[in-house]
Every structure is written in C-alpha cells, then in structure tokens.
Automatic annotation (TrEMBL):
Protein name according to UniProt: TMEM175 family protein
Reaction(s) the record says it catalyses: K(+)(in) = K(+)(out)
Top-level division of the source organism's lineage: Bacteria
Keywords linked to the UniProt accession: Ion channel, Ion transport, Membrane, Potassium, Potassium channel, Potassium transport, Transmembrane, Transmembrane helix, Transport
Chief subcellular location: membrane
Amino acid sequence: MSGHEEHPVDDRAGAAPTTLATGRLEAFSDGVIAVAATLLVLDIKTPEGSDALWPFLGHQLPTLAAYVTSFLTILIFWVNHHALFHAVDRADRTTLFLNGVLLLTVTFISYATSVLGHALQTGHNDSAAAILYALTLAAAASCFVALWLHLGRHRELLSPQARPRVRAALRRSVTGPVLYTTAALLALASPPASLALDAGVAVYFVALPAHLRNRPPRRDPQPPA
C-alpha cells in the first residue's frame, strides 16, 4: 500500500475530487496481477495412474515453457507497473481507466498461455496460438505506452523528479509492443521461435532502465500534525 494520503487535490467544500493518491489503485492492481500469475499454473497437468514422471514431464515441456515465459512476463509487468506508479503522485480518471485496461490484458495472458501450450503440444493451430499469445503480450505492453503518453501530457500528475524522465520512459516502453508484434509475425514461420522471442523480451526488461538509475527516492507527503 502506498504511503500517500487519500485526499482530493480540490479542497473546496462539496467539490468532487479531480485526482486521487495511488494507494488504492496499486493495491487493487497488485491483487489482480497476483491472481493472473496464479492462474497460469492451473493448466499444468499431473501424471495419472501408471504414467512415468519424466516422460510425462517431457511431453509437457511446451506447456511448461509457455508457463515460465508467461510468469516471467507477468512478473516484469508487475515490476514495471510498480516503477511507473512510483513516479506518479496523483491519478486522474483517465489513468484509472488505462490501468484497468492494462489489468484486463494481463488477466487474459493465462488464457493465451493455455491455448499456446496445448497447441505446441499437439501441433494443431500452433502458429495461430503463437500469434494470439504474442499479440496479447503486445496489447498489455501497449497499455504502458498509453499510460506514459497520458502522463507525459499531464506531468502535474508525476513527482517532480520523474517529470524530466518521461521521454526516456516512453521510448523504452515502446520497445515491448514492437518486439511482441515481431514475435507475432515470426509465429507464421516458427511458433517455438516466436515463444523464444517473447521470453527474450521479458529478459530484456529485467534490466533496470537508465531513466530510473541513480534516481533519488521519492518523499511521500507527511500527514498533517
């Protein structure tokens, strides 16, 4: 939970708040993202009857590969979401709705992962499944671009330290949709290679971006005495 005070910017009596602190938004987002990550494991099957464990797991490798890629990707989305809202002092209605669309796409990842894992195991419609999977990740990554674009137009929502770094953050966020779209195109030729590129994008975003390095910690506003 954020340490921000949940009070409106507009303090006039009876006035509706125009912005709010990000604590509730972050808590809700953390819960939704945690559920999305948990749902991924439900598609991994267990051996039945006399099935030998290692051959069974070998048969499950495509599903396991999709699971690991998706979990790592959701983890990276969560880390980037945390970094983004660490830079935000206040959220307006547009920010809330854009964040909601981001959560919608993140929760859909579990379905796309299930479809891809099954398709890679059976060899049926694997190209279409890999395209669906890559485009789902591209949609989620595009929500980060939309958030940064909105925040760039309304820099009063950002902490003073973060305002000069908006362009760098936006440039980095565009990388995700571009690479995931490339993975969707690659799926036409090789679904496994497309999944490998999806995993590579997640690894790329593990590194701390330059615009967040050596950044002074944000001071949360102190409650009135």
